[in-house]
Specification:
- Helices cover 32% and strands 22% of the residues.
- It is α/β, with parallel strands linked by helices and 407 residues long.
- It has two domains: 4-49 and 358-397, Urease, subunit C, domain 1; 51-351, TIM Barrel (Alpha-Beta Barrel).
- Helix 2 (90-106) crosses helix 3 and helix 5 runs parallel beside helix 6.
- The longest helix is centred in the first third of the chain and has 17 residues, at 90-106.
- The chain starts with a strand and ends in a 10-residue tail after the last strand.
- Bound molecules: zinc ion.
- Residues 55, 57, 115, 205, 236, 304 line the site of zinc ion (ZN).
């Protein structure tokens, strides 16, 4: 691998060179000696650590054409997908998931943590397909896998054993989905006990409805503290925060902070799925990103679904999710646009426990170079990802051309 020098990019708000050797950032400085380096001129282009997709479902991507979408009075997205899962083969999952990974790399993603469904319908076929992809994308995209209980753990007699088998085979995370079981607390307790038995962290799909009576994140926070798992529990969705009274919300957010819970918002799916029965003031379901961040909770954004009934227009482009979040969560002021890209870079990296991630000397050279001077311009213009660099190697290069024609 040749040493690589990025020339004069915008790094932390200033024009700097980034020297890369042996897959790591070797030096950062205003004008480095280029001798011995292959150079890339990125003058005034925004250099960021690679995008981190922290919550995504490649195993059920690209199936919108196999089923009807959501309709008033029709089946839920869970029901539509459950009916299709039984027919998923390993090769089918592999092919669709591969397309997700290729698109994600093209859009600047260097690390992805994916939920893999494990249940009586699909058994361990998703695990097998995603494991193959993990090996095939080595050096291009780091893929972490979560053994995910999408259908609940008390709905059949096999899912608990299958999840244990997936963990035993080496999957490093357990993913729960309390609202799929009648007794949410029993589901949460089972997940904590199983995670502790295997010594793995937890990630829950939690509080995705608008009924405060079903709130679970405060109980999850209590359990996290009681079991000494602070910093090792992540919650996706948390749509319900948006319907709590402000004082109650502040109490819940404080508990999340105390338990050092990571929160991952999935705005594209919320905007498509939520509030469909509302007749006025349609609830959009995106969690309170600004409030969570201001309270000191680690918050991230992720893509979640790709071209399926949950999000028919889902696309693994985190710069797009940043714009969707800006629009959905009132985060358009310049100071907010300036920090929004942390929600697809450093914050998810923290949530999934990445070592050596970032734009500092000694960090892994996982980078994306955007055709913009700063985050606000990158989000607003949905700037092209000119170079995607993984372990110091360029793994994707993109250009956009346009011509304004005079009449
Ligand atoms: Zn999800």
């Amino acid at each position: 691998m040749n040493p690589l020098l990025l020339r004069q990019g915008r790094v932390a708000g200033r024009r700097q060179d980034v020297a890369i050797r042996d897959g790591r950032i070797h030096r950062i400085g205003p004008s480095l000696d280029a001798a011995g380096y292959e150079t890339l001129d990125v003058t005034d282009r925004l250099v960021l650590p690679g995008f981190v997709e922290s919550h995504i479902h490649p195993d059920k991507a690209f199936i919108a054409d196999r089923t009807e979408g959501l309709r008033a009075g029709g089946p839920s997205a869970q029901t539509l997908v459950a009916a299709l899962k039984k027919a998923f083969s390993v090769d089918d999952i592999y092919g669709r998931a591969r397309r997700v990974l290729e698109l994600a790399v093209r859009h600047g993603c260097t690390t992805m943590r994916a939920h893999v469904e494990v249940d009586g319908y699909v058994e361990l076929r998703g695990v097998e397909a995603l494991r193959r992809l993990q090996a095939d994308f080595a050096g291009v995209l780091d893929l972490q896998l979560i053994a995910f209980a999408q259908e609940g753990v008390f709905t059949d007699g096999v899912t608990q054993d299958l999840l244990r088998e997936a963990l035993k085979s080496g999957l490093p995370w357990l993913g729960g989905c309390p609202y799929m079981d009648r007794d949410q607390r029993a589901h949460i307790d089972w997940c904590f006990e199983t995670a502790q038995a295997f010594g793995v962290p937890l990630d829950f799909h939690a509080d995705s409805s608008d009924d405060p009576a079903l709130l679970t994140c405060d109980y999850i926070a209590e359990q996290t503290i009681a079991r000494g798992m602070q910093g090792r529990v992540t919650l996706g969705h948390l749509c319900m925060l948006d319907v709590l009274e402000p004082a109650e919300r502040a109490r819940v957010v404080e508990k999340l902070r105390e338990a050092r819970i990571h929160v991952i918002s999935l705005p594209a799916t919320e905007l498509h799925v939520k509030g469909r029965a509302d007749v006025r003031r349609t609830w959009r379901g995106v969690t309170r990103l600004g409030e969570l961040r201001a309270a000191g909770v680690n918050v991230a954004l992720s893509t979640n679904n790709i071209v399926n009934p949950f999000t028919p227009y889902g696309h693994p482009d985190l710069l797009r999710q940043a714009l969707v979040a800006a629009m959905a969560a009132h985060l358009g002021n310049l100071d907010q646009l300036a920090w929004l890209l942390e929600l697809v870079t450093t914050n998810p990296a923290r949530a999934i426990g990445l070592d050596g991630y970032g734009l500092g000397e000694g960090c892994r050279a996982d980078l994306v170079v955007l055709d913009a001077r700063d985050p606000a311009q990158a989000i607003t213009e949905q700037a092209e990802k000119l170079f995607v660099i993984k372990d110091g190697r360029v793994v994707a290069r993109n250009t956009r051309t346009s011509e304004l024609l005079r009449r």
